[in-house]
Amino acid sequence: MTKKTTFKLAFTALVFFFAMNNANSQILVNYQDVDETIYQTTGLKLSLYAEPDMAYHPDYNYVENTGLNETAQWRWVYGFSWALLTDGEPDLAVQVKDWTTRENWVELSGTDLPPVGSPRTYWVKERFNAAGCESETATSKTVATVAVPAITGFTGAGTSSWVLEAAGVEFSFCGEGLTDEISIVLEEEGSIGGLQAYTYGITATRTAYDGNMVMIVGQEAVDMPSMGRTANLNDMTTGLTHTHDIPEMNMYEVGGKKYATKYVFSITAESLTSMISRVSHFRAGVPNSPYGVPGTTVTYWLYPTPTTGPIYHIPNNFNSY
Questions:
Q1: CB-based contact 162:177 (threshold 8 Å)
Q2: What is 116-167 written as a DSSP string?
Q3: Do 303 and 252 contact (CB within 8 A), yes or no?
Q4: Angle at alpha carbon of residue 278, lines to 50 and 284, rounded to 5°
Q5: CA torsion angle for 228, 232, 237, 240 (degrees, to 10)?
Q6: DSSP summary character for residue 275
Q7: Which of 127, 131, 229, 304 is the most interior residue, by most CB within 10 Å?
């Protein structure tokens, strides 16, 4: 059985939001200068800020990004760095944002982000005014776009005495008390191991049938929350292969009589979130939006074991006349 570990996310302490009404309304409370590649989920915009030269911006406010002087400008490019150019060479960079006064930031839309799996380095320079006084060096930040997380496998192991009805998805047993283990396989193209952490829900239901295998009224798809799991954004499971342990499954019983019972397990609809996708929504300034999941289910049938009754016949001493 694959060992499960959890990744405790420290998002509960994040109190933020920047409104994109104008540049000066963007709040930098949660922005940091960290030497790392930014991993951003595809389709979600991303904002970057360049620290201004304090000699020209003595009144700069780091929290509110205010106090920029009236003539300073910034330009953002990718594809070719100013740092690699020599005097007189043409500018071969792809421009993302031209020299703009009092705007030390850039918003990378979905079309500005690199393709999934192909990181891109963005460069920025500051200059004092349109006439010149351009910084001799540029600073850079690498961004890697990541595909949305997906669940590609959801199968039961069928361990112990289960009888295989359909490989990985349906099992049966004459009796009760068996357990099993469901394997969940995920993918998130472009992500890296240290950031591969996920949460999702697993829904479990129970349905009971009478002796004619007709569903018992009121016992159709009864929710069994203790046998599933609930998506928890602050307690994610690491890795791309997970397991879910199913406790003992027993038959529906009334007045000492047991009935054929079906258990169905499935990924809860719209419940999948990854560590990367969650912080990507946060960076984009939008609420976290879980992703859809496949409609695959794993089904277990439990049947009462029949008791063979006595044989009836016409007795030898029966007087038929």
A1: no
A2: BT--EEEEEEEEEETTEEE-SS-EEEEEEEEPPPEEEEEEE---TTPEEEET
A3: no
A4: 40
A5: 80
A6: H
A7: 229
What pLDDT shows up at residue 90? 52
Instruction: Give the alpha-carbon dihedral of 110, 116, 119, 120, to 10 degrees.
Output: -30
Closest alpha carbon to 122 in 78, 74, 75, 80? 78
Identity of residue 89: E
Short-list 302, 289, 298, 266, CA closest to 172:
302
- Which of 130, 141, 112 has its CA nearest to residue 51? 141
User: What pLDDT is recorded for position 135?
Assistant: 86
Q: What is residue 62's predicted lDDT score, i.e. its pLDDT?
A: 87
Single-letter amino acid, residue 265: F
Token pair recorded at residue 8: 């405790």
Residues with Cβ within 8 Å of residue 178, at least 6 apart in sequence: 160, 161, 162, 248, 249, 300, 302
Residue 82 DSSP symbol: G
Cβ-based burial of 70 (10 A; exposed 0-12, middle 13-18, buried ≥19): exposed
Distance in angstroms (rounded) separating the CA atoms of residues 134 and 127: 4
Is the pLDDT score of 60 beyond 60? yes
Residue 275 has pLDDT above 90, yes or no: yes
The answer for residues whose C-beta is within 8 angstroms of residue 306's C-beta and 6 or more apart is: none
pTM of the predicted model, to two decimals?
Answer: 0.84
pLDDT, tens digit, for every residue of 128-186? 887 778 888 889 999 999 999 999 999 999 998 999 999 999 999 999 999 999 999 99
| Whether the Cβ atoms of residue 178 and residue 162 lie closer than 8 Å to each other | yes
Please tell me the predicted confidence (pLDDT) of residue 80. Answer: 65
Output the six-digit token pair for 82: 């100013």
Give the DSSP letter of residue 272: B
pLDDT digits (tens, 9 = 90+) for 200-248: 999 999 999 999 999 999 999 999 999 999 999 999 999 999 999 999 9
